[in-house]
Specification:
This protein has 20 helices and seven strands. The protein is α/β, with parallel strands linked by helices and about 550 residues long.
Length: about 550
């Protein structure tokens, strides 16, 4: 497999879809829902239960912080597949696959090089950050997938002859969908860095395209703001408070120093060293010597650096916010390896040494991974054949394939480095994702979801002591119903609520000792999926549950 291969477009697309299937769908239910997923899925479930799709609630309270498009998608899935986490995460996988396909289309349109576009798509589909975001029911993947679609149509609109009404309007529509997924996040983190690079490299002109460009802006505004306008009309005070809260979060939550994101290559996972190398090569080798298609590499480097700078300027920082950087990053990596394949005979000794260092590291990882995983996970009830013998054969075969391609008598083969790296990432997910996640999952986890089918609590409200503050949303999601506060010091409120299920940190008899009620112990439930010795283990996820009735 190399740039000169006569592989048909349908076959390349089938390979891309196959890699996406492994990356985003296989074993996607290995880890229980985290806090962010629980918030999103509780909101979707309450949409279904209440039938109110325009004004989202979370545990019975208004939740207007996030635009509703991904929640609507999750609600449709909840209606079809109730309490199915794998199905919910598969929707994110579909969005991630769409993002990968849009990158393929964008690079192919810009360069006319189908194989280079194919490589960029596979790199993106096997980078750590996109893989994890594509198998997690959070909304970042949606806004960036839609925005990359908008970028694809923007490029086509500006680079094609004529007014290009259709492309401009499609761009506006996809930008609107992005805003309805997570507000202005992708406009700042993905679109703005692209536009900076696009203007510097391509110097686009609006000549003859002013009217459709304005049409694009108007359509973006209509699609983006109809729901916020609806909320402003029917819940003006809450909407204003939410807007102030969300804008303030960017300045006060998870504040990190300006240089926090300079570890960004780690988000590429197995491609990290290639990413660093590709940027180094642009500035030290390719800037003057590179042949066509030169602009795509220059564009991707400026796009990457612009995204890094803009993201670093925001005080609030989280590793997952680097997802949009992986899009131009995938182009950086793909172009470096594609160019190495095209010019392997003209590579200098130094260039070959650097390429061999990159490839050797990947080969060594493939060689030692089965042994390392076995010793790490051997106490986790791994299957001897599927988790040791078979993957050892696969990973060692890949390692041999790489070593021959790096140090064989026929010279160096960059195509083997690319293919081997993709195969390692896919093999890891197929063979090791489940046993590795078990290393971190609490084996003694006793989820409150066990009460969903308990006939004793059917139709009864779930309450928690108001004095305990707020209830963790993981508990609400797992319980399959709202868990609302109750003031246990208010006797009349307690008697009026009877019978109910009490979810509390303390034993119910201690909380209800002065009341004429009985408290039947239903169990202690630990909803932590992290192990007790983990710093992420949260005691507020462990609750005692009682059925409270009148004596």
């Amino acid at each position: 497999m190399n740039p000169d291969s006569k592989i048909s477009l349908p076959v390349l697309c089938l390979i891309i879809l196959s890699v996406c299937f492994v990356s985003f769908f296989v074993h996607n239910d290995a880890i229980p829902a985290d806090l962010m997923e629980s918030r999103n899925l509780v909101t979707a479930r309450e949409m279904v239960n209440s039938g109110n799709y325009l004004i989202p609630t979370m545990n019975g309270e208004l939740r207007l912080e996030k635009p509703p498009l991904p929640t609507w998608i999750a609600a449709v899935i909840e209606q079809a597949f109730p309490h199915n986490l794998a199905a919910q995460r598969s929707a994110a996988g579909v969005a991630a696959t769409i993002m990968v396909l849009f990158l393929f289309l964008l690079v192919r349109t810009i360069t006319g090089e189908t194989f280079l576009a194919f490589m960029a798509a596979l790199v993106l589909a096997t980078c750590y950050n996109p893989v994890m975001m594509g198998r997690n029911a959070t909304w970042d993947i949606y806004c960036h997938a839609f925005m990359l679609g908008a970028i694809y149509f923007i490029w086509g609109a500006f680079k094609s002859e004529g007014k290009q009404w259709l492309r401009f309007l499609l761009a506006g529509f996809f930008m609107g969908l992005s805003f309805l997924s997570k507000g202005p996040v992708s406009f700042y983190a993905l679109l703005l860095p692209f536009l900076i690079a696009f203007i510097i490299v391509e110097k686009p002109s609006l000549k003859g395209k002013t009217a459709p460009f304005i049409g694009m802006i108007l359509l973006t505004l209509i699609v983006s703001f109809w729901w916020p306008a609806y909320i402003a009309a029917f819940h003006p005070e809450t909407g204003s408070a939410v807007a102030a809260k969300e804008s303030g979060a960017w300045l006060s939550h998870n504040v990190r120093p300006l240089w926090y994101y300079w570890q960004f290559p780690a988000e590429a996972g197995i491609w990290a060293l290639f990413w660093v190398t590709s940027l180094f090569y642009y500035f030290h080798y390719f800037r003057k010597e590179i042949s066509e298609p030169r602009n795509i590499f220059r564009l991707s480097v400026i796009w990457t650096l612009a995204a890094l700078i803009l993201l670093s300027l925001i005080p609030e920082k989280k590793p997952r916010y680097l997802l949009p950087m992986l899009i131009p990053g995938a182009i950086n990596i793909a172009f470096y390896l594609w160019y190495s394949m095209k010019n392997v005979n003209g590579m200098s000794k130094g260039e070959k040494i650097v390429l061999r260092i990159n490839g050797t590291l990947i080969a060594v990882i493939s060689l030692i991974m089965p042994i390392g995983i076995y010793f790490l996970a051997k106490d986790g009830h791994i299957d001897l054949f599927f988790h040791l013998i078979l993957p050892s054969f696969v990973f060692w075969a890949i390692a041999i394939y790489l070593f021959i391609g790096l140090y064989g008598k026929k010279g160096i083969f960059p195509n083997r480095i690319f293919l081997g790296t993709v195969l390692i990432m896919m093999s890891f997910i197929l063979f090791y994702y489940q046993p590795v996640t078990r290393l971190f999952v609490n084996e003694n986890r006793h989820s409150i979801s066990a009460l969903r089918d308990d006939p004793k609590v059917q139709g009864l409200p779930f309450r928690y002591p108001e004095e305990e503050g707020t209830i963790r949303m993981e508990l609400v999601y797992e319980a399959g119903r709202s868990i609302t506060p109750i003031d246990l010091k208010n006797d009349s409120a307690v008697y009026a609520a009877l019978p109910f299920v009490l979810v509390s940190e303390k034993p119910a008899p201690d909380l209800l000792e002065n009341l004429e009620v009985t408290a039947e112990y239903l169990g202690t439930f630990d909803n932590n999926w992290q192990k007790p010795d983990s710093h992420r283990y949260n005691k507020s996820l462990t609750k005692e549950v009682y059925l409270v009735k009148k004596k």
